[in-house]
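Researcher: Here's the sequence for the chain we discussed earlier.
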Amino acid sequence: MRKQYLKRTFVGAAVALSLATMLTGCNKAASEPSEPLIKPVKLLAVNDLTVADSDAFLAQIDATYRAQLSFQVGGEIEKLIVRMGEEVKQGDVLATLDPKDLQLALDASQAQYALARTQWERSKSLYNKKLISTDSYDQQETQYKAALANLEQAKTDLSYTEIHAPFDGVVSYTYVKPYQVVAAKQEILNLIDNTTLDVSFTLPVTYAEAVSLNSLKDAEMWVTMDSEPNKRIQGTFKEISTQPNADTNSYEAIVTITRPSDRNLLTGMTGQYTLRSKAYRTR
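Model: Thanks. This is the structure I predict for it:
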């Protein structure tokens, strides 16, 4: 009995000692001052659109002058002289067809023409002497004229075996390989002039309503590319549609820029078109 009493006494004392320690720790923690927690906040400056002096729109570059070149006649590609990305000058030969078949056709046309001319001259002499009828003479004359037309067409076809550059530019794409047989008017290559470029963008209808066309033409404007946003390229207003796109509810506009000599600007590149708006926007 005495042992049980001593055991309960010892357990009670231990519990009391633990509670006293916990309370002392709590009082100590509560009494110590805690430093305030400061959380960093990222700030972003947003321009007030009502006082901004310029407006920017997404833009895309396209060539002002471009040509899809093809042969006027069919045949086998003899030479594809240029490659994609190569610069050419106006008048340069870009591709040629094998002329053998066309030369044979020309030779045949020349022979037919010579025969038809001889027969026509003979019939004309006989007709003047009243030895043949008018119908016979007209028939020979018709055959002669047809042979002459075939000869001229054969000469023209033979001249179509070369594609020449219509202007200075860059070969943007080639569609065929040497020795490939192509049809008449089939696309052979694309040529673009990358010195003068069109930059297209869209203006929301609500924005277009706030400006006049004349003030838009006279506004200061420039283009920046996504790769070099800090380099401005001055632009000149070219045109704007007068009917909005039904899907985007916006007008399509185009400005023209001259490619800087140190910039490699290509069709399809994107950037921003910016125009000074403070001077002309209606508030």
